[in-house]
Each structure stands twice: as structure tokens, then as C-alpha cells.
Amino acid sequence: MSEKIVQADPTPFLDGEGVKLIPRMPWLNSRRLALFLIFWLVLFFAGSILVENPFVGGSGGSDWWIGSTNYWWVVMYLHGLTVGMVGLGALVACDALEIPSLTVRRGILAGVLVAGLTSPLGAIFDRTPPWTDAGLWVQIVAFVALDEIAILLLWGIVELWRSGVPRTRTFPFIAAGLSAGAVLVAAVMGHLGGWILTFGDNPSIIGWYSSQQGEGVQDFANNLVLSHAYLMIASVLAGIVSLVAIRFGYYGLKGRTLTLARVGMALICLDVVLQVEMAILSGFSPWTITTPAFITSMNGLSWVGVNDLVTLTTLTFGGALVLIALLIGSGRLEGARFPIQVPVRATPFVMWISFAILISALEPPGGAGVGAPPIAWMRLYVGFFLSLMLLIVVLVVERLLPTLYQNRVGWTMLVGAALTFVGCMIYIYSALPAGGYVAVVGLVAVGGSFLATVWYGAVRPSPRASGHFLVAHRQR
After folding, report:
1. Total-model pTM
2. Which residues contact 83 (CB under 8 A, 6 or more apart)?
């Protein structure tokens, strides 16, 4: 076994003042944008209760139906949050993958600035589907900016792969590349589905194609939207785990823990490939609505059930293997006393388990919608958005904060996440209001950890900011 040290670009993406978008405006840099996005998204997450209040009774009708009067707003508001979150993830990815191209870096920075700022703002006003709505066009600008981010990130990954740098031949780097490509595919499918929902059979080739598949135009749009959602969730999850692996010591693993992590990452790569194939098949065929008999014959599984089964056996299980390996075998705690860095290291694993359990526990019977408030709010805003946001923010904490502040923020984050999870589970299985109160306390603690990250990152930069980022890569 040999070890090779690979040094990052002379201008690290998030270190010091980060990469500047405009040389004459030094304050507009990647580091400050990452911290600002965390603060920005906290505000809009808190505002989500005005869109779909989680504290109303659970017996009301669901807002998560295309025919519901509030459907468009809740969907587009969640899009506003997730676009900002993915933008923050792109900044972290550009840093962790050490993309060297300054053109790619500045392009991603510009795209994140546009997408991260405009998408949440547009979500406030994007309440109705007519194409004349100003809020919709604000969000469309953000979606196009997100496309630009995905294209540039994929370009930077491919460019780095062609350079032959050793780290590009590892599972985390490959998974990140596959995820960037899958995000782009999901985005295109979402654009097409959104176009049909807004403009219908225009151009007429849309109606012709859907009739050839034995379905209506509305069914075609529904298939595309559903496939877009599942593929986007899977690809973003896979990308986050690959970044966590890179930042939390994958390249320092040895022996059985390295093998365990490799198996997990291989499963994640397999999941991304399968998810792309299933998304294209279900989006452009009637399989989502009229599942073929050879699938339903398997214990009555629907096409969505097949998708969930694939996700469970590859992405969820693979991610758990990777995070367990990182938790027990990275060696990052050698010489350190408890509890230094323990909460920061443990948070990704805890959030991964919370995500998997909450999403499964809140799955509506028969695949019907997403359920009524507060179940839908917990599933989408907490189980999905907040869990993934925590995974990304913990990467920012590990990257930008000194160890002392990592410890403070990490414990607040970990305790808050645990309380939120416990509170949600109490409410799900007992409907006791006490569960909601516990979850609220946890949410406040998580929000406080996010704001503390912004504060410490802005006024107390890490001493590591003045040095280069070195990554040890082990080759067998």
C-alpha cells in the first residue's frame, strides 16, 4: 500500500475569504455566501408553518393533491427551500471535491447566488399555477440557475477525472459525479412536467406521445413530476453521503472499515444508476399509474413500492454502512478526549437513521398523496428537508469552525435533532400533543445550532483558513 498526498488548488474554495465572484467586490465570496444561505434558509423554514401549519388537526384534507387549492403553493415553497439547500450543497461539493477550474468555481458561485436568493423569495408569491404569476417566473430563474450549477459541477468533475488525479478513482468521487448527472436528469424531467402542468398539450406532440402510451396529458405530467421527485431525492442523498465520506475520513480508513465503506459506496453508486433508469422508465411510460402485472404479482407491489424497495436496499443500507465505517474507523479522534468532535462525527449517522425512519413511518397507505397536516409537514419539511439540511450544515461546521465551536454547535445540533425525532415519533404513534411540544423544542435547538454556525463562522473563523487543504489518499 502506498500513500499519496494531493494538495488542493492554491485558492481553497471556502478557506479564508473563499473564492471571490467579482475581484472588486471582495465581500461577495463563497465562504460568506455559504454562511448567509444557512441563515436565509432558517428564516424560510420557519415561515413554512404559514404555508402548511403542522399544528392543525390531522383529520383535515391533504394539501398534497394536484387538485387541492393549496397544492401548488406547498409544493413550490418546498422547492424554494430545497433549491437553496442544493445550492449550499454545491458550494460544499466544489470545496470537498477540490474542483480546480476557476471558471467552474465562479460559475457555480454565481449560480448559487441566483438560485439560493431567488427561489425562496419566489416561493412566497408562487401560490397559483398560471404562467402569468410573477412568483413562478422568479422560481423559474432559480431553476435555470440550478441547471447551470449541475452542468458546471459535472463539467468540473469530468475535467478533474480526465486529469487522472488519484482521488478521482475512488467511490466517493464517482458517486458525486453520478449524483451531479442524476440531478441534471431529474431537473430536465421536472421542467418538462412543470411545462405540461402549466401549458397542457402545447405543443401538440405532448398529447400525441401520451396517447401512444395509453395515458392522458395530465397522467403524463404526473408521471414526470413523481419521477423527478424520487430521482432528485435519491441523487441529492447520494451526493451528500459522498461528501460526508470525503470530509469525514474515508481516505484514512483501513482494513475492514475501508471494506465496509467501499461496499456502502458501491451500493450508493448502484442506486443512482438504478434510480435514473427507473425515473426515465416511469416518467415516459404509464408504469407509475398502471403497473405491469409481473410487478404487481410480487406481493402486490406498486411501481412506487418497487422504487422504495430499491432505495431501502441500496441507498439507505449503503449510506448506513458508509456512515458506520466513518464513525468507528476514520481515526479522526486519535489523541482526542471525549467529547471533542464526537457530536459533529455522530450527527450524519443519527440524521441518516432519522431520515430513513421518519420517511418510512410517514408513508401514506396505498401511495396516496403525502397525507394531511401535520403528517405531510413532518414527512416533507422535517423528514426530508431538515434532515438533509442538517447533513450539509454539519459539513460546513466541520470545514469552517475551530474545534471548540464545532463541539458547541455539534452538541446543540445533535440534541435538537434527537428531540425532534423523538417528538415526531411520539406524535406519529400516539397523536399526543406532548410529541409536538418535544419536536418544537428540538426544532428550536436545531435552528439555534444553524444560527450559531453562521455567527461563529462569520466572526470567529477557523485557524485552518490560512493553510492549504491536504487530503491523504491511500491506494492499494
Report:
1. 0.84
2. 115, 116, 119, 120, 139, 142, 143, 146
